[in-house]
Specification:
Elements (H helix, E strand, L loop, with lengths): L2 H11 L8 E2 L1 H8 L3 H13 L3 E3 L6 E3 L1 H31 L2 E8 L2 E8 L14 E3 L4 H8 L3 H10 L12 H14 L2 E4 L6 E9 L5 E10 L8 H21 L6
Antiparallel strand pairs: 1-3, 2-3, 4-5, 4-9, 5-6, 7-8, 8-9
Helix pairs in contact: 2-3, 4-8, 5-7
Length: 254
């Protein structure tokens, strides 16, 4: 398919609106100022793949079930985020720290949602913030579950320090990633932001591929080694509920 054909095909779909839900070949060709034969080929192709159906009585084309299926996927995705946020709020209230949902996007982590701590002093970033996958617990947890070739590609891009505690030695990073994957969680202090701790667990899509991480983060002075096991228990308990949503709705990405 040429780019011109693709462009025409996508443009054609825009004519199916709430006001005009069905089109005949000739009337649509006239509306679009396009060749009747081209419009017919496009409509037939969409019909073949289930995106359009032809009404047997009127012979006009209408939107097909494929669009309904995709619409359901989008709807469930946004509903899913609505379901996740109360869980994050619950963790924040129980622990007193901010909770972050970080999603995988290429070779970066992107902050997808935040449940902020109610405490005066707290760690805060903005939704949409992009961060390198090698720096900090929320990112390293995602990187740990990526295929080896993707890990190597990230390392080849360069390991630039965010702080003086960022791991920039490739061998040391690979070793730590293997440890994270074996444990199933990660704890770091000051690797991405000075004097900030983060405790993180992974989230997988229904195909068991890594797509995100859930992190608890706050000022370093508010946590010690004795706190970590209890905080981890809370995070893992609530994370299992989120994972159930991912599996139930067959989520592939956030």
């Amino acid at each position: 398919m040429s780019l011109k054909t693709l462009d025409n095909s996508l443009e054609l779909l825009k004519y199916f609106t709430e006001k005009n839900t069905a089109w005949g070949v000739r009337e649509l060709a006239k509306e679009m100022n396009m060749s009747h034969s081209i419009v017919y080929r496009i409509l037939s192709t969409f019909e073949k793949h289930g995106f359009l159906i032809q009404n047997p009585d009127t012979k006009k084309y209408e939107l097909g079930l494929k669009f309904w299926e995709y619409g359901q996927l989008v709807q469930e995705k946004f509903r899913l985020l609505d379901l996740i946020h109360p869980i994050m709020e619950r963790i924040s209230e129980e622990t007193g720290e901010s909770i972050f949902l970080t999603r995988l996007d290429g070779m970066e982590g992107v902050c997808a949602d935040i449940a902020e701590s109610s405490q005066m002093i707290k760690y805060a970033v903005s939704v949409g913030t992009r961060t390198p996958l090698y720096a900090g617990a929320s990112n390293k947890t995602i990187m740990a579950y990526l295929p080896k070739e993707k890990q190597e590609a990230i390392i080849q891009e360069g390991l630039n320090p965010m702080t003086d505690k960022t791991i920039v030695d490739a061998d040391k990073l690979v070793s730590e990633l293997a440890e994270i994957r074996e444990k199933g969680w990660c704890f770091s202090v000051g690797e991405y932001s000075e004097s900030v701790f983060a405790l993180t667990v992974p989230l997988f899509n229904w195909k068991k591929e890594i797509i995100a991480s859930l992190a608890m983060a706050g000022p370093e002075y508010r946590v010690n080694d004795m706190d970590v096991p209890e905080m981890l228990k809370i995070l893992q308990r609530e994370c299992s509920e989120i994972q159930n949503y991912f599996d139930r709705y067959r989520i592939t990405h956030i």
